[in-house]
Amino acid sequence: MSKKVLIVTGDAVEALEVFYPYYRCLEEGYETVIAAPSVKTLHTVCHDFEAHSDTYTEKPAYQLPAHVAFSDINPEAFDALIIPGGRAPEHIRLNEHLKPIVAHFFEANKPVAAICHGSQVLTIVREHLAGREITAYQACRPDVEACGAIYQTETLHVDGNLVSGHAWPDLPGLMREFLRLLK
Fold first, then answer.
1. Is 0.70 surpassed by the pTM of this model?
2. 25 is catalytic
3. Edge to edge, what strands does the sheet with 68-69 contain?
């Protein structure tokens, strides 16, 4: 039976951080479901690092259909979870249905991948993060540490069932490690 992967996201998700894992999982033959606060067409963004800017820049990117709403997700039906970054995490973490979904993957010790600002979603399950080692985009370091987790400066880190990455350039390593855990 094929494995089933859940991706949780919303509007303003970083395009590479959602499409790369989505297509990579499909390539492996896994059923891959994109969940959002509601079933709709999501608007992704392109974050880039440019010499003239002290932080990343943002431009509109592709549209992406959300297959299912958070309220309709049974996390027990999934084998693994991916949390992309962008600006989506700052608003989806406010959705009342997301916390039990994310908590399930930690309680069941199933693989979880969080990239970049995806760490902001992890803050809603802080009870599962105390003492865990996580990397994320450097602007998320205060969020990671406020959860009682230990921020790692390397751009890719694995701590048990949790694979975390700094930003989209780290996706090949993040997905390699995530798929290793899933297999």
1. yes
2. no
3. 68-69, 31-36, 4-8, 80-83, 112-115, 162-165, 156-159
Select which of 116, 128, 147, 157 is catalytic.
116
Residue 33 pairs with which residues in a beta bridge?
A: 6
* Phi and psi at residue 79, to the nearest 5°: -95, -20
Give residue-wise pLDDT tens across range 99-128.
999 999 999 999 999 999 999 999 999 999
pLDDT 10s digits, 125-167: 999 999 999 999 999 999 999 999 999 999 999 999 999 999 9
Out of 104, 117, 128, 166, which one is annotated catalytic? 117
How distant, in Å, are the alpha carbons of 18, 34, 37, 92, 138 from that of 96? 22, 17, 9, 9, 27
Catalytic residue flag (residue 140): no
The token duo for 82 is 């991916």
